[in-house]
Specification:
The chain has helices at about 10-35, 50-65, 80-90, 110-115, 130-135, 145-160, 175-185, 200-205, 255-260, 275-290; strands at about 10, 40-45, 70-75, 100, 165-170, 190-195, 210-215, 230-235, 240, 245-250, 265. It has two domains: about 30-120, Leucine Dehydrogenase, chain A, domain 1 (Rossmann fold, 3-Layer(aba) Sandwich); about 145-275, Rossmann fold, CATH 3.40.50.720. The strands form three sheets. A six-stranded parallel β-sheet has the order 1-11-8-7-5-6, with helices on both faces. The chain has a three-stranded parallel β-sheet with strand order 3-2-4, sandwiched between helices. Strands 9-10 form a two-stranded antiparallel sheet. The longest helix has 23 residues, at about 10-35. About 40% of the residues lie in helices and about 15% in strands. Helix 1 (about 10-35) packs parallel to helix 10, helix 6 (about 145-160) crosses helix 7 (about 175-185) and helix 6 packs across helix 10 (about 275-290). It is an alpha/beta fold. It has ten helices and eleven strands. The two termini are about 25 Å apart. The structure holds NADPH dihydro-nicotinamide-adenine-dinucleotide phosphate. NADPH dihydro-nicotinamide-adenine-dinucleotide phosphate binds next to helix 10.
Amino acid sequence: MDGTGGAAIIDGKAFAEGLRARIGAEVARIKAAHGLVPGLTVVLVGEDPASQVYVRNKGKATEGAGMKSDTIRLPAGTSEADLLALIARLNADAAVHGILVQLPLPGHIDEAHVIEAIDPAKDVDGFHLINVGKLHTGMKDALVPCTPQGCLMLLRDALGPLDGRSALVLGRSNIVGKPMASLLLAANCTVTIAHSRTRDLAGECARADILVAAVGRPGMVKGSWIKPGAAVIDVGINRVPAEGGKTRLVGDVAFEEARAVAGHITPVPGGVGPMTIACLLRNTLIAACRSAGLPAPAI
Ligand code: NDP
Protein backbone atom coordinates (compact mmCIF):
# COMPACT_ATOMS: atom_id res chain seq x y z
CA MET A 1 0.00 0.00 0.00
CA ASP A 2 1.21 3.54 -0.66
CA GLY A 3 -0.15 5.35 2.41
CA THR A 4 -3.17 6.75 0.56
CA GLY A 5 -5.03 3.45 0.85
CA GLY A 6 -4.20 2.47 -2.72
CA ALA A 7 -2.15 -0.39 -4.09
CA ALA A 8 1.63 -0.21 -4.16
CA ILE A 9 2.67 0.81 -7.66
CA ILE A 10 5.05 -1.66 -9.31
CA ASP A 11 7.59 0.59 -11.01
CA GLY A 12 8.55 -1.39 -14.09
CA LYS A 13 10.54 1.51 -15.51
CA ALA A 14 12.85 1.64 -12.50
CA PHE A 15 13.13 -2.18 -12.33
CA ALA A 16 13.96 -2.34 -16.05
CA GLU A 17 16.61 0.37 -15.66
CA GLY A 18 18.23 -1.64 -12.87
CA LEU A 19 18.10 -4.82 -14.93
CA ARG A 20 19.65 -3.07 -17.92
CA ALA A 21 22.43 -1.72 -15.73
CA ARG A 22 23.15 -5.24 -14.40
CA ILE A 23 23.17 -6.60 -17.95
CA GLY A 24 25.54 -3.81 -19.03
CA ALA A 25 27.91 -4.66 -16.19
CA GLU A 26 27.84 -8.35 -17.11
CA VAL A 27 28.46 -7.54 -20.79
CA ALA A 28 31.50 -5.46 -19.78
CA ARG A 29 32.74 -8.32 -17.60
CA ILE A 30 32.51 -11.04 -20.27
CA LYS A 31 34.04 -8.68 -22.83
CA ALA A 32 37.05 -8.11 -20.56
CA ALA A 33 37.35 -11.70 -19.36
CA HIS A 34 36.54 -13.63 -22.55
CA GLY A 35 36.59 -11.14 -25.44
CA LEU A 36 32.94 -11.98 -26.05
CA VAL A 37 30.66 -9.20 -27.34
CA PRO A 38 26.98 -10.26 -27.43
CA GLY A 39 25.39 -9.36 -30.77
CA LEU A 40 21.71 -8.86 -31.59
CA THR A 41 20.44 -8.56 -35.16
CA VAL A 42 16.92 -7.22 -35.67
CA VAL A 43 15.25 -7.72 -39.04
CA LEU A 44 12.46 -5.37 -40.10
CA VAL A 45 10.48 -6.05 -43.27
CA GLY A 46 8.39 -3.14 -44.55
CA GLU A 47 7.63 0.26 -43.08
CA ASP A 48 5.02 -0.23 -40.37
CA PRO A 49 5.45 2.95 -38.25
CA ALA A 50 4.98 1.23 -34.86
CA SER A 51 7.48 -1.50 -35.81
CA GLN A 52 10.01 1.15 -36.86
CA VAL A 53 9.79 2.76 -33.42
CA TYR A 54 10.14 -0.62 -31.65
CA VAL A 55 13.13 -1.57 -33.78
CA ARG A 56 14.84 1.79 -33.20
CA ASN A 57 14.33 1.45 -29.42
CA LYS A 58 15.67 -2.11 -29.42
CA GLY A 59 18.78 -0.98 -31.32
CA LYS A 60 19.44 1.89 -28.92
CA ALA A 61 18.95 -0.29 -25.85
CA THR A 62 21.27 -2.98 -27.24
CA GLU A 63 24.04 -0.46 -27.84
CA GLY A 64 23.35 1.11 -24.44
CA ALA A 65 24.11 -2.24 -22.81
CA GLY A 66 27.46 -2.44 -24.65
CA MET A 67 26.31 -5.13 -27.08
CA LYS A 68 26.73 -5.19 -30.85
CA SER A 69 23.52 -4.07 -32.50
CA ASP A 70 22.61 -4.56 -36.13
CA THR A 71 19.32 -3.67 -37.80
CA ILE A 72 18.57 -5.03 -41.26
CA ARG A 73 15.75 -3.17 -43.01
CA LEU A 74 14.16 -4.91 -45.99
CA PRO A 75 11.51 -3.61 -48.40
CA ALA A 76 7.88 -4.67 -47.85
CA GLY A 77 7.99 -6.68 -51.08
CA THR A 78 10.82 -8.96 -49.88
CA SER A 79 10.00 -12.59 -50.72
CA GLU A 80 9.73 -15.27 -48.05
CA ALA A 81 12.58 -17.15 -49.76
CA ASP A 82 14.90 -14.12 -49.51
CA LEU A 83 14.02 -13.61 -45.85
CA LEU A 84 14.67 -17.30 -45.10
CA ALA A 85 18.03 -17.06 -46.91
CA LEU A 86 18.97 -14.06 -44.75
CA ILE A 87 18.04 -15.97 -41.59
CA ALA A 88 20.20 -18.90 -42.73
CA ARG A 89 23.15 -16.50 -43.10
CA LEU A 90 22.52 -15.01 -39.63
CA ASN A 91 22.22 -18.51 -38.13
CA ALA A 92 25.68 -19.30 -39.52
CA ASP A 93 27.28 -16.02 -38.34
CA ALA A 94 29.16 -16.64 -35.07
CA ALA A 95 29.09 -12.90 -34.19
CA VAL A 96 25.27 -12.95 -34.14
CA HIS A 97 23.97 -14.39 -30.86
CA GLY A 98 20.37 -13.18 -31.07
CA ILE A 99 18.06 -12.89 -34.09
CA LEU A 100 14.76 -11.06 -33.84
CA VAL A 101 12.42 -10.72 -36.80
CA GLN A 102 10.02 -7.90 -35.99
CA LEU A 103 6.37 -8.96 -36.23
CA PRO A 104 3.95 -8.52 -37.87
CA LEU A 105 5.38 -9.48 -41.25
CA PRO A 106 3.73 -8.49 -44.56
CA GLY A 107 0.82 -10.81 -45.42
CA HIS A 108 2.63 -12.73 -48.19
CA ILE A 109 5.21 -14.07 -45.69
CA ASP A 110 4.28 -16.98 -43.41
CA GLU A 111 5.36 -15.94 -39.91
CA ALA A 112 5.51 -19.54 -38.70
CA HIS A 113 7.98 -20.48 -41.47
CA VAL A 114 10.19 -17.55 -40.51
CA ILE A 115 10.14 -18.25 -36.76
CA GLU A 116 10.93 -21.93 -37.32
CA ALA A 117 13.90 -21.00 -39.56
CA ILE A 118 15.67 -19.18 -36.72
CA ASP A 119 18.26 -21.23 -34.84
CA PRO A 120 16.50 -21.93 -31.48
CA ALA A 121 19.74 -21.01 -29.67
CA LYS A 122 19.50 -17.51 -31.24
CA ASP A 123 15.71 -17.16 -30.91
CA VAL A 124 15.74 -14.30 -28.38
CA ASP A 125 11.98 -13.74 -28.78
CA GLY A 126 11.44 -17.31 -27.51
CA PHE A 127 8.82 -18.04 -30.18
CA HIS A 128 10.48 -21.08 -31.85
CA LEU A 129 8.69 -24.38 -31.22
CA ILE A 130 11.80 -25.77 -29.51
CA ASN A 131 11.81 -22.93 -27.00
CA VAL A 132 8.02 -23.13 -26.57
CA GLY A 133 8.35 -26.86 -25.89
CA LYS A 134 11.24 -26.37 -23.49
CA LEU A 135 9.29 -23.75 -21.54
CA HIS A 136 6.18 -25.91 -21.32
CA THR A 137 8.11 -29.01 -20.26
CA GLY A 138 10.11 -27.11 -17.66
CA MET A 139 13.56 -27.32 -19.29
CA LYS A 140 15.84 -24.72 -17.80
CA ASP A 141 17.56 -23.73 -21.04
CA ALA A 142 14.48 -22.33 -22.82
CA LEU A 143 14.76 -18.82 -24.22
CA VAL A 144 11.57 -17.38 -22.70
CA PRO A 145 9.34 -14.77 -24.42
CA CYS A 146 10.33 -11.33 -23.17
CA THR A 147 7.04 -9.79 -22.04
CA PRO A 148 5.86 -12.66 -19.80
CA GLN A 149 9.42 -13.07 -18.46
CA GLY A 150 9.31 -9.38 -17.52
CA CYS A 151 5.94 -9.83 -15.78
CA LEU A 152 7.31 -12.75 -13.77
CA MET A 153 10.33 -10.76 -12.66
CA LEU A 154 8.12 -7.88 -11.49
CA LEU A 155 5.84 -10.28 -9.60
CA ARG A 156 8.75 -12.03 -7.88
CA ASP A 157 10.26 -8.68 -6.93
CA ALA A 158 6.95 -7.43 -5.48
CA LEU A 159 5.72 -10.62 -3.81
CA GLY A 160 8.70 -12.91 -3.24
CA PRO A 161 8.00 -16.61 -3.80
CA LEU A 162 4.76 -17.19 -5.70
CA ASP A 163 4.17 -20.77 -4.49
CA GLY A 164 0.56 -21.73 -3.90
CA ARG A 165 -0.98 -18.47 -5.09
CA SER A 166 -3.93 -18.55 -7.45
CA ALA A 167 -3.16 -16.78 -10.73
CA LEU A 168 -5.49 -15.78 -13.52
CA VAL A 169 -4.03 -15.02 -16.94
CA LEU A 170 -6.49 -13.10 -19.05
CA GLY A 171 -5.59 -13.74 -22.71
CA ARG A 172 -4.21 -16.86 -24.43
CA SER A 173 -1.92 -15.54 -27.16
CA ASN A 174 1.30 -17.37 -27.99
CA ILE A 175 3.39 -14.31 -27.19
CA VAL A 176 1.92 -13.34 -23.83
CA GLY A 177 -0.95 -15.38 -22.33
CA LYS A 178 0.22 -18.96 -22.86
CA PRO A 179 3.90 -18.47 -21.91
CA MET A 180 2.79 -16.36 -18.92
CA ALA A 181 0.60 -19.23 -17.72
CA SER A 182 3.50 -21.67 -18.15
CA LEU A 183 5.87 -19.46 -16.16
CA LEU A 184 3.36 -19.03 -13.33
CA LEU A 185 2.74 -22.78 -13.25
CA ALA A 186 6.49 -23.38 -13.09
CA ALA A 187 6.57 -20.90 -10.19
CA ASN A 188 4.05 -23.18 -8.40
CA CYS A 189 0.97 -20.99 -8.82
CA THR A 190 -2.45 -22.53 -9.40
CA VAL A 191 -3.18 -21.14 -12.84
CA THR A 192 -6.37 -20.37 -14.74
CA ILE A 193 -6.36 -19.04 -18.31
CA ALA A 194 -9.34 -16.91 -19.36
CA HIS A 195 -10.23 -15.71 -22.86
CA SER A 196 -13.07 -14.37 -24.97
CA ARG A 197 -15.23 -17.49 -24.41
CA THR A 198 -14.81 -17.55 -20.63
CA ARG A 199 -18.29 -17.50 -19.06
CA ASP A 200 -17.82 -15.65 -15.76
CA LEU A 201 -14.79 -13.44 -16.26
CA ALA A 202 -15.49 -11.23 -13.24
CA GLY A 203 -15.90 -14.30 -11.01
CA GLU A 204 -12.68 -15.89 -12.32
CA CYS A 205 -10.77 -12.65 -11.70
CA ALA A 206 -12.20 -12.29 -8.19
CA ARG A 207 -10.55 -15.58 -7.12
CA ALA A 208 -7.07 -14.57 -8.26
CA ASP A 209 -4.22 -13.53 -5.96
CA ILE A 210 -2.35 -12.64 -9.16
CA LEU A 211 -4.13 -11.22 -12.17
CA VAL A 212 -2.26 -10.74 -15.46
CA ALA A 213 -4.33 -8.93 -18.09
CA ALA A 214 -3.23 -9.27 -21.72
CA VAL A 215 -6.28 -8.69 -23.89
CA GLY A 216 -5.79 -5.42 -25.77
CA ARG A 217 -9.08 -3.86 -24.57
CA PRO A 218 -8.79 -0.51 -22.80
CA GLY A 219 -9.93 -0.57 -19.15
CA MET A 220 -11.80 -3.86 -19.53
CA VAL A 221 -10.87 -5.23 -16.09
CA LYS A 222 -12.95 -3.34 -13.52
CA GLY A 223 -11.98 -2.62 -9.94
CA SER A 224 -14.99 -4.64 -8.73
CA TRP A 225 -13.53 -7.77 -10.43
CA ILE A 226 -10.35 -7.69 -8.39
CA LYS A 227 -9.74 -9.64 -5.20
CA PRO A 228 -8.76 -7.21 -2.42
CA GLY A 229 -4.98 -7.20 -2.04
CA ALA A 230 -4.31 -8.98 -5.34
CA ALA A 231 -1.27 -8.23 -7.51
CA VAL A 232 -2.42 -6.87 -10.87
CA ILE A 233 -0.10 -6.92 -13.87
CA ASP A 234 -1.43 -4.94 -16.81
CA VAL A 235 0.20 -5.97 -20.09
CA GLY A 236 -2.26 -4.10 -22.33
CA ILE A 237 -1.05 -1.19 -24.43
CA ASN A 238 -4.00 0.65 -25.94
CA ARG A 239 -4.01 4.07 -27.56
CA VAL A 240 -7.20 5.99 -26.80
CA PRO A 241 -8.39 9.52 -27.67
CA ALA A 242 -7.41 12.21 -25.15
CA GLU A 243 -8.10 15.92 -24.73
CA GLY A 244 -7.06 18.34 -27.47
CA GLY A 245 -7.33 15.75 -30.24
CA LYS A 246 -4.34 13.87 -28.81
CA THR A 247 -4.06 10.23 -27.79
CA ARG A 248 -2.77 8.55 -24.65
CA LEU A 249 -1.78 5.03 -23.65
CA VAL A 250 -3.94 3.00 -21.28
CA GLY A 251 -3.86 -0.61 -20.17
CA ASP A 252 -6.45 -3.37 -20.05
CA VAL A 253 -7.24 -2.56 -16.41
CA ALA A 254 -9.35 0.40 -15.18
CA PHE A 255 -6.36 1.71 -13.26
CA GLU A 256 -7.84 4.08 -10.68
CA GLU A 257 -10.64 1.67 -9.70
CA ALA A 258 -8.24 -1.26 -9.56
CA ARG A 259 -5.66 0.64 -7.56
CA ALA A 260 -8.18 1.22 -4.78
CA VAL A 261 -8.66 -2.56 -4.34
CA ALA A 262 -5.39 -4.25 -5.35
CA GLY A 263 -2.31 -4.76 -3.19
CA HIS A 264 0.12 -4.17 -6.06
CA ILE A 265 -0.47 -2.85 -9.56
CA THR A 266 1.57 -1.96 -12.66
CA PRO A 267 0.81 1.38 -14.35
CA VAL A 268 0.52 1.90 -18.11
CA PRO A 269 2.83 3.31 -19.30
CA GLY A 270 5.81 2.57 -17.03
CA GLY A 271 4.88 -0.94 -15.88
CA VAL A 272 5.36 -4.02 -18.06
CA GLY A 273 6.34 -2.11 -21.23
CA PRO A 274 9.95 -1.25 -20.26
CA MET A 275 10.55 -4.83 -19.10
CA THR A 276 10.10 -6.27 -22.59
CA ILE A 277 13.24 -4.69 -24.08
CA ALA A 278 15.23 -5.31 -20.88
CA CYS A 279 14.35 -9.02 -21.12
CA LEU A 280 15.33 -9.03 -24.80
CA LEU A 281 18.80 -7.83 -23.77
CA ARG A 282 18.84 -10.47 -21.03
CA ASN A 283 18.01 -13.21 -23.57
CA THR A 284 20.74 -11.95 -25.92
CA LEU A 285 23.29 -12.04 -23.11
CA ILE A 286 22.17 -15.55 -22.12
CA ALA A 287 22.36 -16.74 -25.76
CA ALA A 288 25.85 -15.25 -26.16
CA CYS A 289 27.14 -16.89 -22.96
CA ARG A 290 25.75 -20.28 -23.98
CA SER A 291 27.29 -20.01 -27.45
CA ALA A 292 30.70 -19.58 -25.79
CA GLY A 293 30.15 -22.38 -23.28
CA LEU A 294 29.94 -19.90 -20.39
CA PRO A 295 27.33 -20.24 -17.63
CA ALA A 296 24.29 -17.98 -18.17
CA PRO A 297 24.50 -15.11 -15.67
CA ALA A 298 21.93 -15.18 -12.87
CA ILE A 299 20.36 -11.78 -13.48
P1 NDP B 1 -3.91 -10.98 -28.82
O1 NDP B 1 -4.89 -10.15 -29.56
O2 NDP B 1 -3.06 -11.92 -29.57
O3 NDP B 1 -4.70 -11.82 -27.71
C1 NDP B 1 -5.69 -11.23 -26.95
C2 NDP B 1 -6.30 -12.26 -26.02
O4 NDP B 1 -7.32 -11.61 -25.28
C3 NDP B 1 -6.97 -13.43 -26.75
O5 NDP B 1 -6.64 -14.65 -26.11
C4 NDP B 1 -8.46 -13.14 -26.65
O6 NDP B 1 -9.27 -14.28 -26.49
C5 NDP B 1 -8.54 -12.36 -25.36
N1 NDP B 1 -9.68 -11.46 -25.37
C6 NDP B 1 -9.97 -10.51 -26.28
N2 NDP B 1 -11.12 -9.89 -25.95
C7 NDP B 1 -11.57 -10.47 -24.81
C8 NDP B 1 -12.70 -10.28 -23.99
N3 NDP B 1 -13.63 -9.37 -24.27
N4 NDP B 1 -12.83 -11.06 -22.90
C9 NDP B 1 -11.91 -11.99 -22.60
N5 NDP B 1 -10.80 -12.22 -23.33
C10 NDP B 1 -10.65 -11.46 -24.44
O7 NDP B 1 -3.05 -9.94 -27.96
P2 NDP B 1 -1.57 -10.06 -27.35
O8 NDP B 1 -1.52 -11.17 -26.36
O9 NDP B 1 -0.57 -10.00 -28.42
O10 NDP B 1 -1.50 -8.66 -26.58
C11 NDP B 1 -2.39 -8.34 -25.54
C12 NDP B 1 -2.16 -6.90 -25.10
O11 NDP B 1 -0.84 -6.79 -24.62
C13 NDP B 1 -2.26 -5.87 -26.24
O12 NDP B 1 -2.77 -4.67 -25.70
C14 NDP B 1 -0.82 -5.66 -26.64
O13 NDP B 1 -0.61 -4.37 -27.20
C15 NDP B 1 -0.14 -5.79 -25.32
N6 NDP B 1 1.27 -6.20 -25.41
C16 NDP B 1 2.15 -5.49 -24.66
C17 NDP B 1 3.48 -5.81 -24.69
C18 NDP B 1 4.41 -5.05 -23.84
O14 NDP B 1 5.60 -4.99 -24.11
N7 NDP B 1 3.95 -4.47 -22.72
C19 NDP B 1 4.00 -6.89 -25.55
C20 NDP B 1 2.96 -7.65 -26.21
C21 NDP B 1 1.64 -7.28 -26.15
P3 NDP B 1 -9.47 -15.36 -27.68
O15 NDP B 1 -8.21 -16.15 -27.72
O16 NDP B 1 -10.64 -16.16 -27.21
O17 NDP B 1 -9.72 -14.57 -28.93
